[in-house]
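Researcher: Re-running this chain for the archive, since the previous output was lost when a drive failed. Same request as before.
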Amino acid sequence: MESQPADELLRDELTGLPNGVLLRDRLRVALVRRRRPREDSLAVLSVDLDGMRAFNRRHGREAGDGILQAAAVRLSELVRAGDTVARAGGDEFVMVCEELTNDDEALVVAERVLEGFERPLLAGETEHQMSVSVGLVVVAGGELEPDRVLTEAHRAMLRARGEGPGRFGP
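Model: Regenerated C-alpha cells:
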C-alpha cells in the first residue's frame, strides 16, 4: 500500500478544500491566538446547501458532486486569502475568518455568503440555483475548544434553516 502525501490526508477528496482534521487544527490555532487580548474578531460560519438531498434525488449523485465542487469554489471566492474554507462533510462547509475589525464585519461576511449564492452554480454544463443556510458564531476570547465552536456554529445554522432557505443567524 502506497502512503499518501500528508497534504492529501488533510484535504477533502472531492473539493480539494481542507477536511475536518485540518479545519480543527486551523481553528485550534485561531482560538489559541484569541487567548491573548485582541481588538479584532474571529468568526466561524457553518454553511449548508439548502435542499441538497432533493437535488441529488432529482439530478443524480454526479450532478450533486458538481454542485459541491462549485459551492467550494464560490465560498473560496468570498473570503480573504488568510481565511479558511473547509468541507465539514456532506453538504456542509465551514468558514473561519480571522482578524475581522469588529463583530459587524462578521455579519457582512454572512450576508456576502448569502448574496454569493444568488448566482446559479454550474454543475457540468447546467446551471442550478441553490441557496444556503448560514450559522454564525463570533468568538471574542476565552478557552473554547474547536469542537464546541463548530457545534455552536452548526446549531446556529440549523436555527437559520428552520426560518427557511437562504437565511443566516447567530
